[in-house]
């Protein structure tokens, strides 16, 4: 099955650890769609994997920001919390509706959910790292 949610080079922030995490998040988002035909249990497993990796990634990013003395750490952390809230609301809906909720609208939601954050907030952090001569 082709990927529903396409990674693109525009999403590279050019900080290796962060880019690797983001690419893995795209793989995990696509797993939801490639496993959907196996039924609700398979979807729940895929969603669970996305949810825990998302939280790990956010924690790693925030730890990197602390080390780098990033002045926008608290605003960025707030955005992460908002994204987790949105993801959890989406999961609740999926639990209620079941496999029928795994559709194009979910793909668009997830793609937008992650890419809009990367393009604004993560790019800003990467720019700060470069400006301050740090690697993250
Ligand atoms: Fe990120
Ligand atoms: Fe972030």
TrEMBL record:
Pfam families: Hemerythrin (PF01814)
Top-level taxon of origin: Bacteria
UniProt keyword annotations, A-Z: Iron, Metal-binding, Oxygen transport, Transport
InterPro entries: Haemerythrin_Fe_BS, Hemerythrin, Hemerythrin-like, Hemerythrin-like_sf, Hemerythrin_metal-bd
GO MF annotation terms: metal ion binding; oxygen carrier activity
Gene3D superfamilies for the chain: Hemerythrin-like
This protein's record includes keyword Disulfide bond: no
Domain Hemerythrin-like: 15-128
SUPFAM superfamilies (UniProt xref): Hemerythrin-like
Keyword Glycoprotein: no
PANTHER family, alphabetized: BACTERIOHEMERYTHRIN
Family: Belongs to the hemerythrin family.
Stated name of the protein: Hemerythrin
Upper classification of the organism: Bacteria, Pseudomonadati, Pseudomonadota, Alphaproteobacteria, Rhodospirillales
């Amino acid at each position: 099955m082709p990927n529903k949610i396409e990674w693109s080079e525009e999403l590279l922030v050019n900080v290796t650890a962060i880019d690797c995490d983001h690419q893995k998040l795209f793989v995990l988002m696509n797993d939801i769609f490639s496993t959907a035909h196996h039924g609700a249990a398979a979807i729940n497993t895929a969603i669970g994997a996305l949810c825990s990796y998302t939280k790990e990634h956010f924690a790693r990013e925030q730890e990197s920001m602390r080390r780098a003395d990033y002045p926008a750490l608290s605003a960025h952390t707030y955005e992460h919390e908002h994204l987790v809230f949105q993801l959890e609301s989406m999961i609740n809906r999926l639990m209620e509706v079941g496999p029928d909720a795994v559709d194009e609208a979910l793909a668009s939601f997830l793609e937008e959910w992650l890419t809009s954050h990367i393009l604004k907030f993560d790019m800003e952090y990467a720019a700060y790292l470069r400006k301050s001569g740090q690697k993250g």
